[in-house]
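User:
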Amino acid sequence: MIKITKKHLIIFSALVWYAGSISLLIKSVSLLNSAHSIYPNLVILLLVFVTGLTIGFFKGKYIFVKSCKKNIRRINELEKVKPWLFFKPSFMIALVLMITTGTTLSHFAEGDYAAMLAVAILDLTISMALFYSSFVYWQKKLVLQQ
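Assistant: Predicted structure:
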């Protein structure tokens, strides 16, 4: 039987972070493709893409990095390591609500050029913030505390 360690929990947290980043990037590109089929203006799409990435960079740097560090500290302070404790239970509930909200927003944006661009910016922002902040999970001074 495999013994789950704190390091495993931290790695699993990072993998969830990456999965969210990649899925939101794919979703935003899909939205931008759909918007492009309605109104084929590459300048607008490029502006939306750059805006989302730029906002996401700052959101990652100033908000999400703190969240990652806090989660790593929480994992390192666990007395009993359980596989489901890679995030706090309340965060898991929030994550489900965020995914549901994002899916609902995308559904309502279908066919509406401005709404698709707005949701694409939101998705790109979160995708970039997740990706930027994920590097915290690989900082040895935080992760290797067992």
